[in-house]
Specification:
By secondary structure, the chain is α/β, with parallel strands linked by helices. It has two domains: about 190 residues, Rossmann fold (3-Layer(aba) Sandwich), CATH 3.40.50.720; about 100 residues, UDP-galactose 4-epimerase, domain 1, CATH 3.90.25.10. Helices cover about 40% and strands about 15% of the residues. The strands form four sheets. Strands 3-2-1-4-5-6-11 form a seven-stranded parallel sheet, with helices on both faces. α1 links the parallel β1 and β2. The protein is globular. The mean pLDDT is about 95. The structure holds nicotinamide-adenine-dinucleotide (NAD). Nicotinamide-adenine-dinucleotide (NAD) binds next to α1, α4 and β7.
C-alpha cells in the first residue's frame, strides 16, 4: 500500500510520516521541506494543496491519503477567514476530487475537537453536537462534511484530535502553544501567564499517540466513521503550570490575567470508540513534559 501524508513537515504529520514509513511505502507533502530527521527528508515533496494541478500530480499511484495539512491558527482564521478556508476547505476538496479521479481507496481526514465548540457535556463523545466557535472550527467541520459525502466513492474516516503536544509543537499553535509557552517562560525563570482562574481543563495528548491511532484507523477504521483522539483525561491549566514549574525546579508563581473571550471551561475526550480499534494512549504528561523540557 502506498500512503500519502499531507502536512508531513508539521507537528503531527511528521510523526505520522515516520511511523507509516516503517510499514508502508510513503510520501509526504507540505508547503515547507521536512525539518526533522534527515533520513525522511527526501520523502517529502513541497507544494501547495490549494493548486488542483499539483494535487492531481501527487495522488497518482497512491492507495491511501492521511490529510493533516491545514491552517491551524484560530487567531489567524479570524484575521483572514478566506485564507483559512482556502487551506482547510478548498485544499481538502482538491484532494477528494483528485482521489476519485485517480481511484484512491482510503482517505483519512484529520479534523479537530474545535468542531464541538463549547461542550454541552464532558467527556465529549463523537455524538456531541458540533457548534464551532471560530472560522477555523467551521473550516475543519466543512472539511469533515465534504469528506463524508465522498464515503460513497471511497473509504473515508475522520479523526478529531484534542490538544496535541510534542517537542515538535509550534509555540503559536493554539492547542499546544500553552505548553511551549510555559516551558519557554519557566526556562527563563519568568512566571507563566494564565488567562482566567486556571481551572479550565483540556485533554493533552502526545503527538506520537495520535500517530499510532491514525495508523490503527488506516488499518481498521469503519467507513464514514469519526473518531475522537485524546487521553480521555482532563487536566487543568493550573495543574499543568505547576507541573512545568516543578520540572523546571524554579521558584516562580503563575500570573493570572483576564479570561480570554470564548475560552471554553472543560474539555476532554470520550475515547471509547478509539479503544474499540485497539487504541490505548501511552501519554504520560509529566514524563513527556520532562523529556520535552530537556529537548527544547
Ligand atoms: N495540534 C493540535 O493540537 C491539533 C488538534 C486538533 C486538530 N489538529 C489538526 O491536525 C492537523 C495537523 O496539525 P499540526 O499540529 O501538526 O499543525 P502544523 O501546523 O504543525 O502542521 C500543518 C502543516 O500543514 C502544512 N500546510 C498548511 N497549508 C498547506 C497547503 N496549502 N499545502 C500544503 N501544506 C500545507 C503546513 O506547512 C504545516 O507543516 C491539522 O489538520 C490540525 O487542524 C491539530
Amino acid at each position: 500500500m502506498k500512503v500519502l501524508v499531507t502536512g508531513a513537515s508539521g507537528q503531527i504529520g511528521s510523526y505520522v510520516l515516520e511511523l507509516i514509513a516503517k510499514k508502508y511505502e510513503v510520501i509526504g507533502v507540505d508547503l515547507k521541506p521536512y525539518p526533522f530527521n534527515e533520513e525522511y527528508r527526501e520523502l517529502v515533496i513541497t507544494g501547495d494543496l490549494r493548486s488542483f494541478r499539483f494535487v492531481q500530480s501527487i495522488v497518482k499511484d497512491v492507495d491511501a491519503i492521511i490529510h493533516l495539512a491545514a491552517q491551524v491558527s484560530v487567531e489567524r482564521s479570524w484575521i483572514d477567514p478566506a485564507f483559512d478556508a482556502e487551506n482547510n476547505i478548498i485544499a481538502t476538496i482538491n484532494l477528494l476530487d483528485a482521489c476519485v479521479e485517480s481511484g484512491v481507496e482510503k482517505f483519512i481526514y484529520v479534523s479537530s475537537a474545535a468542531v464541538y465548540g463549547s461542550p454541552l457535556y464532558v467527556p465529549i463523545d463523537e455524538q456531541h453536537p458540533t457548534n464551532p466557535l471560530s472560522p477555523y472550527g467551521v473550516s475543519k467541520l466543512a472539511g469533515e462534511h465534504y469528506a463524508k459525502i465522498y464515503s460513497e466513492k471511497m473509504h473515508v474516516n475522520i479523526v478529531r484530535p484534542f490538544n496535541v503536544y510534542s517537542e515538535r509543537m509550534d509555540p503559536e499553535n493554539p492547542y499546544s502553544g500553552v505548553i511551549a509557552k510555559f516551558i519557554e517562560r519557566a526556562k527563563k525563570r519568568s512566571p507563566p501567564v494564565i488567562y482566567g482562574d486556571g481551572r479550565q481543563t483540556r485533554d493533552f495528548v502526545y503527538a506520537k499517540d495520535v500517530a499510532r491511532f491514525i495508523e490503527a484507523v488506516l488499518k481498521k477504521g469503519l467507513n464514514g466513521e469519526a473518531y475522537n483522539i485524546g487521553t480521555g483525561k482532563e487536566i487543568s491549566i493550573l495543574e499543568l503550570t505547576k507541573t512545568v514549574i516543578d520540572i523546571a525546579g524554579v521558584d516562580i508563581e503563575p500570573v493570572f490575567e483576564r479570561p480570554r473571550e470564548g475560552d471554553i471551561r472543560r474539555s476532554y475526550a470520550d475515547i471509547s470508540k478509539a479503544k474499540k480499534l485497539g487504541f490505548e494512549p501511552k501519554t504520560d504528561l509529566r514524563r513527556d513534559l520532562k523529556e520535552i523540557f530537556n529537548l527544547l
